[in-house]
Amino acid sequence: VFALKRRAEATDQELIAAVLDGSEAAFADLVDRYQDRVFRLLGRYCRDRVECEDLAQDVFLKVFRKLHTFQGDSQFFTWLYRIAVNAATDHLSRASSRRLKLVEDTGVFERADGDEGQPAEPLMVAELAAITRRIVDELPEKFRTILVLREFEELSYTEIAEVLQIQLGTVESRLFRARQRVKDALERQHPELVPGGSRTGGSR
Amino acid sequence: MNHDEQDPLLRAAFGAVRGGREVMTPPAGFAERVVAATRALPSREAMIQADRLAADLGATVVRLCRRIVLAAIVLFALGLAFASGLLDGGGAGTVEAAPDEVQRELDRLDALLSGQREQPRPEVPRGHDRR
Prior knowledge:
The structure holds 2 protein chains of 2 kinds. Helix content of chain A is 64%, strand content 0%. Chain A is mainly alpha-helical. In chain A, helix 3 (49-66) crosses helix 4 (76-94) and helix 7 crosses helix 9 (168-189). Helix content of chain B is 63%, strand content 0%. Chain B has helices at 8-20, 30-38, 44-83, 99-118. Classes of the chains: A mainly alpha, B mainly alpha.
């Protein structure tokens, strides 16, 4: 079926069946179809391009190795995302020094205490993004992952539940607590962002 | 899009991340590199067999663990029964006898009692003259 169809027309299931039959072209198409999304997701976890490429390759190799275990009772991309999220979190826990590196990378955006008293520049969008990223990076893994999937990857609650293999209610409550933590951190570390604070953000 | 996020601060913060950051993209030829890397992997049949072997091993371990737990529960229950005296045949003072033997003993005791009523005699130590 795969051989007769153009690659854009082939469904995920047809591509998977072709891969399981030994078609390299079908697997190349499957990688091609999802590589952008995988890179975007992994980019939320690793800032280094080489590291991200290695991780993405590991993810797709694992997909290839385990493809015969994919039951088809969920969407292929949620199965793929589950592998990618697990790979990313495993990678983060292995590289324990990485978090320090991230803080160093984004340290330029931190407010130095020595700047107090000087005229404050309005927060720019890039600065707000960096602050938010740093706060999200410092969250416990489960909160970080659910925020990445919802706020940045814009997955639906059902898709998140499939990726993380948790109940829908757990998605809602975990997301609520994760957002609350980000909000608390933003208000605590950057009171100028709060409406009515010492200065107003320029991000809107 | 996110419609469940109402807090303006969070909306601005997450919006800034979504829109303000360069997205990591795959390099040219990434898919071909991945496909080339798959050639170093074992065949599909070998991978399926390895998975099956691992699953069988896992099932065996689970079965073994379940049996060990079951045996531990049985041993614990037996220990508890012994400790509470339920299975202690000799030490709990329980007398076991055939029904006719019990009846004979009751008759003997009846006879003894009726004899005592008729002719009081000095007290005989308990258990004496039983057989």
